[in-house]
Amino acid sequence: MHIENRYLLKDYNTFGLDIQTDQLIRVRSAEDLDQIISKDFLKEKPYLVLGGGSNLLFTDNFPGLVLKNEILGRDITKEDQDFVWVKLGAGENWHQVVLWAIENDWGGIENLSLIPGTVGAAPMQNIGAYGVELAQVFQSLEAIELEEGNLQVFNGDQCDFGYRYSIFKGELKNKYLITSVTLKLSKKPEFNTSYGAIHNTLQEQGITELSLKAISKAVIAIRESKLPDPRKIGNAGSFFKNPSITKDHFNTIRNEHPTVPGYNLPNNYVKVPAGWLIEQCGWKGKRRGNIGVHKNQALVLVNYGNGHGKDIHKLALDIQASVEQSFNILLTPEVNIVPA
Questions:
Q1: Which of 58, 294, 314, 327 fits a 20 to 30 Å CA distance from 73?
Q2: What pLDDT does residue 206 have?
Q3: pTM of this prediction exceeds 0.85
Q4: Catalytic site residue 244?
């Protein structure tokens, strides 16, 4: 186990913020974590588990210990004629795992192509895109409880998956470190092109025969056209969740804004795109010095370089207040803000 003091985290957060932590330890196995826990490191100071840093906004330096999850591994634990069960180390790069699955002709996660971050972060967030959520292919995960070091296996019900939510963002936040995730992928995939953007992109690309690779390439093209590359412009993807409101509330908004998009949900609720709400309030493309709202996607807050997390947070709060005043909807951040 090697401790790195006063470690700069610019390369470990996709906003590209120049912040540092007092100490950083790389966790590359469950044994590493056992050693950390046995030495009481986590009882002496605040700590943070860090994966790819793609869903995180630091508002200041972190005065504690960062556990960098770098546990790797890709193993087939079971298979039959129709499915394959793959156990993945939590530190594996998510997009690379998607490409690996496609190469092996295993379906179920191709619509989740190009989502940044690590495998361990995927169930925490219940990542989703273009009609697919991780929960649909999730089987189980292994996680170590950080107080006593006990290993626990969680199934889907125990994870309490919701929209961009799991129990690890709720009552178990910061209490476990996920070491592995097992997914059930299909050898006879059913292609999901229900989102119009995928269908239209496939047509534009001249694709007439569906395949996992074709859908993945379409998703990548859509994401690259809408979302800035964090290697070029610092960002954490979608900053806010799409809110769900009652149908009566939606109809009230539609009376004043007939073009408001909405997607019907159970129990008389409607999901409204947060990006549309933000754009209607005039934020799209707005810049404040070194930070701002992306010109192509109002849902993405960006660091153009040398920006500060406090300024991005202030911008997010101002956007929330603006949308609430105009539409009586309080947007919820999808990004984790540290400190909370």
A1: 58
A2: 87
A3: yes
A4: no
